[in-house]
C-alpha cells in the first residue's frame, strides 16, 4: 500500500511538471500563380509568369514554448524557419527567429535572433493590409527585399538598404503595459573585427487602448567602414479598428551619413464582409541627396481574401509601383499580380 501511494505521488508530480511546460508547432504555407514585371524599363525589365512563394504572407515553420518557473516567472523560446513552397530546397533552421528568454512581471527579455524593436511599429504601419511579405507591399521606400523565383530584387525610392526586420546576436527587452503605454529596446552586438563596427540599436514607444494602436520607433544600423551604410530609420505609425473597417498608416524615413534620405507616407484600409476581406494600400515617397530631390515614386496595392475556414484562405492581389528620377523619367517599376491559397497550422 505504501509503495502504491509513493508511485501515485510520483505520477502526480510528474503530471504537474508536464503541465507547467508547453511546446507549440505552427506554420504557414502560401503559394500562388501570377505574373511580375520588375526592374528598369526597356531591356533590363524582367517579366515572367510563374508560381510564387510567400506573396501574401511569408511561408514558415516554427516552434515556440514556455516553462512555468514559479512566482510569475517563465522561460520562453522560439525557433522559426523560412520555407519555399514553390521549389523546396535546403532550409536554414532558425533563419527567421531563434531565441531563448525570460518573461515575468518585469517584462520580457529575449536573447538570439529576433525582430528588432523598430519592426513592431513598422509592421503597425501596414497592419491593415492583407499581406506581410515585401512582394505585394505598397510602400516604395524599400521594396524587393528578396527575389521570388524569377522576380529580381528591386531598389526602392532613394536606393537605401532595408532596416532589417531581424538581427543576429541580439538582446531585446519588452516592457509590460502601464495603462496602455509600453516600450521596447533591442541591441544587436557588433561581432566584427576592429575597426569595422556593425551593431544595430532600436527602440519603440507605444500606446494601445481599445481600438487605437499608435507608436514611434527608431533604429540605427552602424557600419564604421562605409559611411553610406551608416543608416538611421524613424517611423510613426497608427492603426484604428472602426468595427466595420480597419485603417493603418504612417511615416517612415531612412537616411545615411552621406547626406541622402528618403521619406514615405503610407495608408491602408481593410474591410471584412462575411467571409471576404478587402484591402487597399497606397504609398508615396521622395528621396533627396544633399537637399535636392533625385527620386520619387508611389505604389498602389489591392487584394481580397476568401476564408474557406479559420486556417485556409484563397486570395487575389496586385501591386503597381513606379519610381522616377528628378527629371520625371521612369527608372524602375514593379507590377505583380497573383491568385493563390494560404494555409495556417
Describe this structure in words.
The chain is mostly beta strands. The chain is built from 2 helices and 17 strands. The chain has helices at 2-19, 117-125, and strands at residues 21-39, 46-53, 60-70, 73-82, 97-104, 107-115, 166-174, 181-188, 200-209, 212-221, 231-241, 246-256, 260-273, 276-289, 292-307, 312-325, 330-344. The chain is globular, with a radius of gyration of 22 Å. The chain starts with a helix and ends with a strand.
> What is the top-level CATH class?
Mainly Beta
Strand order of the largest sheet: 1-3-4-5-6-7-8-9-10-11-12-13-14-15-16-17
Classify the oligomer: single chain
CATH architecture: Beta Barrel
Helix content bin: under 10%
Q: Structural class given helices, strands, pairing?
A: mainly beta
Largest sheet: 16 strands, antiparallel, barrel
Low-confidence stretches: 1-19
Assigned CATH superfamily: Porin
How many strand elements? Answer: 17
What percentage of amino acids are in beta strands?
over 45%
Summed up, the domain count is 1
Total helices: the number is 2
CATH topology: Porin
Distance between the termini: 46 Å
Radius of gyration: 22 Å
